[in-house]
Amino acid sequence: MFPEPHFIETNGIRMAVYEDGEGPAVILLHGFPELAFSWRYQLPALARAGFRALAPDQRGYGRTGIPPDVKDYRIQELIADIEGLLDALDLEKAVFVGHDWGALVLWHMSLLCPERMERQAILNIPFWPRTPVDPIQLMRHTLGDDFYIVNFQDSGEADRTFAADPGHFFDVLMRRNQVSRQQFEQLPAQKKVLSLLAAVARQESGGDPLLSAEERDYYVTAFSAGGFTGPINWYRNWTSNWHSLDGVPQLVNVPTLFIGAEDDVIISPEQIEAMRPFVTDLETHMLEGCGHWSQQEQPDEVNRILIDWLTH
Known about the structure:
312 residues; alpha/beta; Rossmann fold; 15 helices; 41% helix
């Protein structure tokens, strides 16, 4: 169902890289709580379109190394992993595709080392310029301690809870048609705050399962082996990453395709529109009736938009 990886030593870790096809390189970066496996529909489609598609399990995930310390997951380390991957492949630069945290890595790369990027395609997460104050303080003030990014800063409760039953975690979290944009906008403010601990405390969730039984097992096996602390440690460097952009001009000059999702309710249409002044070469598309897991929920449409952009 999915190719076996080859392994590359980069930036002090052993990175698992899944690959299909020949031609110009397109590197796909997954988010939380995903794997290279989340690009299972894109790898063969890109290969058929004449590209060399590569998707790593990123640091702390899947069959890639899991360093032990929180500081091992700073944005500098995440970017160094990708630069090391380029070097191992003898590539000066490549086209990148990123979803969720993979998108955040690419936004940082586009500010800090754009010379390694030919173009980038971003799924779901728009560009936010650096805030004048610590973003965790802002989130804590506006969204409260239960908001999942804030909660991740304060304890290991989420790590332990998710790891106690990875199957239930993916059953609850990785779903489609849970709530539409219109339904979300009608909710009271307190119900709009995303608490992953509250979500996994429910025995059932709305919408429809996104994963087949075989796909679910793939995720569960990987996270049962590797746990959730490495992936959550990415979030625990949010303030450190904010400091790393101090004094960096907040202008993205890398040609960018943005694919948003109408029912990814954590991201507002206003946030997507607000990034336009900060991205000099931007093409945008919106997926109707699609939630956060865009490349898995609507793979054919994502592939169509992506390949059209790559070939024109």
